[in-house]
Design goal:
278 residues; alpha+beta; Carbonic Anhydrase II; 2 domains; eight-stranded mixed sheet; 5 helices; 30% helix; binds zinc ion
């Protein structure tokens, strides 16, 4: 699996993993408007300019991660079931198992054209700041039972259930979070869509993050579609034509007024002359 186009380099998939919480606490790594989701999937890619993920991982732009929120839905997710049904076989640390191949594309949301993007870091040590993050706006849904399997099966050291394996959001520090779509602030949201506006990973009380988010919005950071561009061009053309027409009407009217007053004065003078003569 590769990411081709859209970024300055092409990337090859290396691994995927999950972050989750517990039955009482959500465990996604990203938050949107401080809202955390039950879980998150990360598909880690490395730049094809490097031989391996090891060579790429500490280089600027060396890694690209596709991320999606996992939330609870009414139905069993058949693609995820192909992983989750084997989780009991690796519940102890260090165990591994081979599973039949399947289309891992199905682990991601259907709509891959609506996403947040920013430059960030790995969320596990050594937390290299080398990641092009792409976080999809559409979420993936697991049934309540599937979420419970994800949250309660794998054990860490000393027989503790491995839960809440996420890193806290970091400050934006002036970085812009871009969106591939217009954020419908106050508008209606489609089913399964993460809430807007497009501010990802703001640290609580970090006003900079909000300014940055709005900056990305306001500075036209969305990828404009051809339709949008044409609309802007025709809008500007219409505006220029309207202004030119108004200027023309004004000039014509003032010339007519001038002509009108000149005519009157001429007639008036003539009449006066006549009267004086009489
Ligand atoms: Zn991760």
């Amino acid at each position: 699996m590769m990411i081709v186009g859209g970024l300055s380099q092409d990337y090859r998939a290396a691994q995927l993993h999950f972050h989750w919480g517990s039955s009482s606490s959500p465990g996604s790594e990203h938050t949107v408007n401080a809202q955390r989701f039950p879980g998150e999937i990360h598909v880690v890619h490395y730049s094809m300019e490097y031989e391996s993920i090891n060579d790429a991982k500490n280089q600027p732009g060396g890694l690209a991660v596709l991320a999606a929120f996992i939330q609870e839905g009414p139905e069993l997710n058949p693609t995820y079931e192909q992983l989750l049904s084997h989780l009991r076989e690796v519940e102890e640390e260090g165990k591994s198992i081979e599973i039949p191949g399947f289309d891992i594309h199905g682990l991601l949301p259907q709509r891959l054209d609506r996403y947040y993007r920013y430059n960030g870091s790995l969320t596990t040590p050594p937390c290299y700041q080398s990641v092009n993050w792409t976080l999809f706006n559409q979420t993936v849904s697991l049934s309540q039972e599937q979420l419970a399997v994800l949250e309660n099966t794998v054990h860490s050291e000393h027989d503790h259930i491995l839960q809440l394996n996420f890193r806290e959001p970091q400050r934006l520090n002036g970085r812009h979070v871009l969106t591939s779509f217009k954020s419908p602030i106050g508008g209606r949201r489609g089913p399964g869509a993460a809430p807007d506006p497009a501010v990802v990973s703001p640290a609580p009380g970090d006003s900079t993050s909000h300014r940055s988010g709005q900056g990305a919005e306001g500075s036209g950071a969305h990828a404009l579609s051809t339709g949008d561009m044409l609309a802007v061009i025709f809008g500007v053309l219409f505006g220029v034509t309207a202004v030119a027409f108004l200027v023309y009407v004004r000039k014509t009217r003032s010339r007519n007024q001038r002509l009108g007053s000149e005519n009157k004065s001429v007639i008036y003078k003539a009449a006066t002359t006549d009267e004086n003569l009489a």
